[in-house]
Amino acid sequence: MIEAYRSQIKELQTDLENHIQNLTFGEDPKELYEPIAYLMSLGGKRIRPLLTLMAYGLYKKDYKTILSPALAVEIFHNFTLMHDDIMDDAPLRRGEATVHEKWNPNTAILSGDVMMVRAYDMLLEVPSEKLTLCMKHFNRTAAEVCEGQQFDMIFENRKQVSEKEYLEMIRLKTAVLLGFSLQYGAMLAGAPADDVQRLYDFGVNIGIGFQLKDDVLDVYADKAKFGKQVGGDIISNKKTYLLIKAIELAKGREADELVYWGSAKEFDKAEKVLAVTSIYDSLGIKDLAEAKIEAYFEKGFEQLRHIKPVYKEALQGLTFLAQDLISREN
Prior knowledge:
- The protein is mostly helical.
- The chain has one domain: Farnesyl Diphosphate Synthase.
- It contains 16 helices and two strands.
- A two-stranded antiparallel ribbon has the order 1-2.
- Helix 2 crosses helix 6 and helix 8 crosses helix 9.
- It is globular.
- 38% of the residues are buried.
- The mean pLDDT is 94.
């Protein structure tokens, strides 16, 4: 049964990838359009449009009719990545040079803008009777993603961020787009309003859990499986859930050490990672984070238990996909 689900997901991903290969963004000036094709060619799991297709498949079988509308979500997602990389001055995206490094920041800004326009073009392929509703929810989600990114940048310059503020930031920056992806597929399939809302809530809760798991993996992942530097968040003083809880709970010497490592300008990276991780261990931060992750995952799956799909096997496939992503080690 597991292999059947994996095969189904692989088929959907292959259809999405083939459709991406056939997309045209424009030709002249090539300096504007080549960066878009470059970024889209870097791959990824295409999770967001995959969720759209799987939500649609709960109620209808003809998912190939919505490949273009589904990929509007992927184009938008990659637009945000292109602009986020500029803001973060990130040198790499999926192991390759970011667009602003390979070309320049101004080109990356303009190419990203064109991607946003192209996403709207693909949204216009939604059937007319559903277009207004889909556009309304897409616009709300797009604004929330921007709000989340702005909060993330604000937090970089704040000494303290509360747990509540952090969870709201990752809800906006990451989770709402996963929620919309599922909501969108259900709306395109004409699903009942209650199911549409439950799928959205499922995606948001799972999305928050995913981001919290990223925080944990950055510190505790198996280096051989993680695919990037373990402890990168600690080195850069990124305000993750783990650091926020440690600052909240640390007393005495441990609190002083966190202040020291957070303000040190010159340090040995391995020493800093070891020292801060030791504080996390002594405070039980990993256990607290994993309990929070489990709570969000359970809250998400509770929503799935109440929906009424036309095709129950499709619901099992969606559940399998979510559980497979949850159990990832990188």
